[in-house]
């Protein structure tokens, strides 16, 4: 990965205009597609497989006039007046006549209808006109919504002064999120932080510009997807938040690494490529963790939430792609002008450039610097090579010195403090948003409050029970009996309507609870009503289902609550596995996962304190305390997981990098002093960038709190708090403290686990390895195959341990040459697969087709043909496939297994391939393995390849003992 990104970064640096124009072109195409295909977002929440959804489907088939969305017009007469007297009664009747003619309205229920109860308040001062629509909220034309608001305004103007009129209900329960100038403040804060971090105005714009381009493209793609998918209005806002935050941070990490290297005197092009290969690898890994967590939202099995996770994942994926391509392109525009104020190239070169040293020595510089800090580490320096006197020591900052000198106190203080902050989380309640959380100036909020005041809170969220009554001989009597049964259930204020449909095959019961839609008592009432199912079915033969907008919201909240534990296990388990792969450690992942859980608990606690307890509610413009949006916890857990792993990777990877270099400089010694020094120097090297990244993310998320949509506000607050807690308390305080307590044990992993886990070059070691040996065996070598001390050791299981397949193999071939490998059949095949880039060597240097392994294995696999003849059903076809295309090097295993006609055809194929390649001015090189050397030589001779270089493979046990060297 790191070598691929290195090449990508260098290409982008060299062709900045191509990269920039390509991204702008993609942005333009996506923007044009929005204008052509976008259909708009949808706030109709559904959850397949639940009783509420099944009830809605039943009503769709048999009672369509009751299955769509609804609205209600609330009229409150002036003080001392009655709503059932003129002029109010006349105005209401005239308004009903007007409403009957509006597009999309199926039914208008008059408050004076004798068949309906509860639409006139007990004090006869308020009335509700109930409206039923054809389809869900998204199906209602915008013109109809506007007309409803105009009708309400006209009625308000016609009635006496002091009259209150407001339109609300399910149709208006969801507000459409919109950006404001407050959100833009987060971007300005991010820009200020970037300027301070880079000390350069032009460089500061690079992360911001790349993030804005990425966000614009992601949002355009999301709106285009509305042409064939249902996207909630919250989704684009979530994508904007995430896209901005991670887009700026990912570019920041790459630019910061480039600036440090440029200040050290590295060539700008080389620096940009290395920064993309090293910091870019961490960016890709961090992005992968966010992507996996967001896609993991599908655990809840709720379609709109799955879509939201996928859409947000698209924004993150675009941010990663933009960061690793457009960021080095911007650096290509700047060339060498990135050092920033007070860091001129001459000054940096005089201070940090190591004249006359090799790339390998440059790579060891962090370890040498760390040795100079041994005294500051309060540790006795181990034996090591002296540091370069011309290299200034990095002095650990005061914070990490304080933390690592008092690790036990620090650990206890952080854990206890976060546990206290998390206490309010126990009272966190969840529900779908309704008009009650909208701003007080919203007409829908006014209608909600008026309804609650004059009719009771339950009138804002009526429940519906529906079922088939086709077997009843007395449908009206049956509905009356069911009404009486339901009214006896605790929590039911009244049954407003109990009636069969027009075809008398489905019954509908409209229930008004005593409590508000988002009150836990209403959720309990839904459960109590469903608990009556079997009894009512036995007594009345009716299969009743509880449904309606409120019941759907309760089902969604229950489903999400049940999904939190498995999702948490998935996220924590994923973090353990991923971090084991990255850091080759057991304790580092455990510590990281525990820190993540502390951050999540603390963010839940702050959200509950603000939205449930009302702390700082006015300061944060929280218009009404109560339950938060039901998918807040699972989204916060998923997003915060990815972002927390970002900081863990960028901070701890530098600690590991210094630990590895320092241990190497100390000739393999890995004591406690070495580990603590690496913690301090690694923290010092990365703290500035991690701090800037955390402040930027906090600013972006926090900007969505004061004026944010009611659905986004708790998510934004939780993410802002989670970022601050995770970055500054967990990663930059708890992590160095725990790492200090663990010492060298922090990097321990069982050998068997280390062997089975894949490797992800998060620290860019392959790039450093490649640059250190860029001129090996000589600059611009033309040799297609050269190896020095190449070895391969595999896991032989518990009983056999490590098995050496071949060791210390050195060889070199010129174009057109042939290497004939002999030895054990298993070892010979392993060698063939190794030079073909299919197996990673465990030691030595190996360059194949101009590419250094293992970092360039992907390129080698694309340029080297492989033919495994010994076990092939059709060995000739296998060889023909390997020789096809433009491969100039072919690796063949089991050449001596051919006989008869197969042997002749193989020789002919090799001759033809050599002639074809020679016709293009090149030569084909062959690596062949054989147990019977004579047979293989005969086939090669027939193929006109008499110039053969033999290589007899040996295992480690067969090598001569190396003489001991006395110190």
UniProtKB/TrEMBL annotation:
Pfam families: MMPL. The chain crosses the membrane at residues 178-198, 205-231, 237-256, 277-302, 308-331, 408-432, 563-583, 595-616, 628-652, 673-703, 715-742. SUPFAM superfamilies: Multidrug efflux transporter AcrB transmembrane domain (SSF82866). It is a multi-pass membrane protein. The keyword Membrane applies. Its main location: membrane. Coiled coil: none annotated. GO terms for cellular component: plasma membrane. Residues 200-333 form the SSD domain. InterPro entries: MMPL_dom, Mycobact_MmpL, SSD. Gene3D superfamilies: Multidrug efflux transporter AcrB transmembrane domain. PROSITE patterns: SSD. It is found in: Cell membrane. Keywords: Cell membrane, Membrane, Transmembrane, Transmembrane helix. The keyword Mitochondrion does not apply. This is MMPL family transporter. It comes from Microbacterium ulmi.
């Amino acid at each position: 990965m790191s070598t691929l990104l290195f090449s990508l970064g260098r290409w982008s640096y060299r062709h900045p205009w191509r990269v920039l124009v390509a991204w702008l072109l993609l942005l333009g195409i996506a923007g044009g597609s929005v204008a052509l295909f976008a259909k708009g977002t949808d706030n109709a929440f559904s959850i397949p497989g639940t009783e509420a959804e099944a009830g809605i489907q039943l009503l769709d088939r048999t009672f369509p006039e009751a299955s769509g969305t609804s609205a209600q017009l609330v009229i409150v007469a002036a003080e001392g007046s009655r709503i059932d007297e003129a002029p109010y009664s006349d105005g209401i009747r005239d308004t009903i006549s007007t409403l009957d003619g509006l597009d999309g309205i199926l039914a208008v229920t008059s408050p004076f209808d004798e068949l309906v109860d509860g639409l006139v308040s007990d004090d006869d001062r308020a009335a509700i006109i109930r409206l039923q629509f054809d389809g869900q909220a998204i199906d209602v034309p915008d013109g109809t919504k506007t007309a409803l608001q105009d009708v309400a305004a006209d009625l308000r103007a016609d009635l006496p002064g002091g009259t209150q009129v407001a339109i609300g209900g399910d149709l208006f329960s969801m507000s459409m999120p919109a950006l404001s100038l407050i959100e833009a403040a987060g971007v300005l804060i991010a820009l200020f932080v970037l300027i301070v971090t880079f000390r350069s105005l032009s460089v500061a714009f690079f992360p911001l510009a790349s993030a804005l381009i990425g966000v614009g493209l992601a949002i355009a793609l999301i709106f285009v997807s509305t042409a064939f998918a249902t996207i909630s209005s919250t989704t684009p806002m979530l994508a904007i938040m995430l896209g901005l935050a991670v887009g700026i941070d990912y570019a920041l990490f790459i630019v910061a690494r480039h600036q440090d290297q440029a200040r050290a005197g590295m060539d700008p092009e080389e620096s940009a490529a290395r920064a993309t290969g090293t910091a870019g690898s961490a960016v890709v890994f961090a992005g992968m963790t966010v992507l996996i967590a967001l896609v993991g939202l599908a655990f809840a099995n709720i379609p709109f939430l799955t879509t939201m996770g996928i859409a947000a994942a698209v924004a993150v994926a675009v941010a990663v792609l933009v960061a690793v391509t457009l960021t080095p392109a911007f650096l290509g525009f700047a060339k060498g002008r990135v050092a920033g104020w007070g860091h001129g190239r001459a000054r940096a070169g005089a201070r940090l450039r190591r004249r006359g040293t090799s790339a390998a020595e440059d790579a060891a510089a962090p370890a040498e610097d760390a040795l100079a800090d041994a005294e500051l580490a309060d540790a006795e320096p181990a034996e090591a090579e002296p540091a370069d006197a011309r290299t200034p020591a990095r002095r650990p900052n005061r914070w990490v010195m304080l933390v690592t000198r008092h690790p036990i106190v620090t650990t206890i203080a952080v854990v206890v403090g976060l546990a206290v902050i998390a206490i309010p989380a126990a009272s966190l309640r969840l529900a779908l948003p309704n008009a009650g959380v909208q701003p007080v100036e919203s007409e829908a909020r006014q209608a909600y409050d008026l309804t609650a005041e004059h009719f009771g809170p339950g009138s804002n969220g009526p429940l519906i029970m529906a079922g088939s009554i086709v077997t009843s001989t007395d449908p009206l009597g049956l509905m009356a009996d069911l009404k009486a049964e339901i009214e006896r259930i605790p929590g039911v204020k009244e049954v407003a309507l109990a009636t069969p449909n027009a075809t008398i095959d489905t019954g509908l019961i409209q229930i008004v609870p005593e409590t508000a839609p988002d009150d836990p008592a209403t959720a309990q009432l839904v459960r109590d009503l469903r608990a009556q199912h079997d009894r009512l079915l036995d007594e009345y033969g009716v299969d009743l289902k509880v449904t309606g907008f409120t019941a759907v919201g309760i089902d969604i909240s229950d489903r999400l609550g049940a999904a939190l534990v498995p999702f948490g296990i998935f996220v924590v388990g994923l973090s353990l596995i991923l971090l084991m792969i990255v850091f080759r450690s057991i304790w580092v992942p455990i510590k990281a996962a525990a820190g993540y859980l502390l951050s999540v608990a603390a963010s839940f606690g702050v959200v509950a304190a603000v939205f449930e307890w009302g702390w700082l509610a006015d300061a944060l413009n929280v218009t009404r305390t109560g339950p938060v949006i039901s998918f807040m916890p699972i989204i916060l857990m998923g997003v915060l997981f990815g972002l927390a792993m970002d900081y863990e990777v960028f901070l701890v990877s530098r600690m590991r990098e210094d630990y590895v270099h320092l241990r190497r400089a100390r000739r393999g010694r890995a004591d406690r002093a070495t580990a603590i020094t690496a913690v301090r120097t690694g923290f010092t090297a990365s703290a500035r960038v991690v701090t800037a990244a955390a402040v930027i993310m906090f600013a972006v998320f926090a900007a969505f709190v004061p004026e944010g949509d009611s659905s986004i506000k708790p998510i934004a607050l939780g993410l802002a708090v989670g970022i601050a807690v995770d970055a500054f308390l967990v990663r930059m305080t708890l992590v160095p403290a725990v790492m200090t307590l663990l010492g060298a044990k922090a990097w321990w992993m069982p050998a068997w686990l280390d062997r089975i886990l894949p490797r992800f070059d998060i620290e860019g070691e392959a790039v450093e390895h490649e640059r250190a040996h860029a001129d090996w065996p000589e600059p611009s070598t033309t040799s297609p195959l050269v190896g020095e001390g190449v070895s391969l050791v595999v896991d032989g299981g518990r009983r056999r341990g490590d098995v050496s397949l071949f060791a210390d193999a050195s060889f070199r071939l010129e174009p057109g040459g042939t290497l004939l490998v002999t030895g054990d059949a298993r070892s010979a095949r392993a060698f063939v697969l190794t030079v073909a880039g299919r197996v990673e060597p465990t030691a030595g240097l190996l360059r194949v087709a101009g590419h250094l392994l293992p970092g360039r294995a992907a390129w080698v696999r694309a340029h080297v043909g492989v033919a495994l003849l010994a076990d092939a059903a059709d060995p000739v076809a296998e060889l023909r496939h390997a020789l096809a295309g433009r491969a100039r090097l072919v690796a063949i295993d089991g050449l001596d297994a051919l006989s008869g006609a197969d042997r002749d055809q193989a020789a002919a194929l090799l001759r033809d391939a050599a002639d074809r390649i020679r016709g293009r001015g090149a030569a084909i090189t062959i690596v062949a393995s054989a147990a019977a050397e004579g047979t293989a030589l005969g086939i090669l001779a027939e193929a006109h390849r008499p110039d053969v270089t033999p290589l007899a493979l040996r295992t480690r046990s067969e090598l001569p003992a190396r003489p001991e060297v006395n110190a």
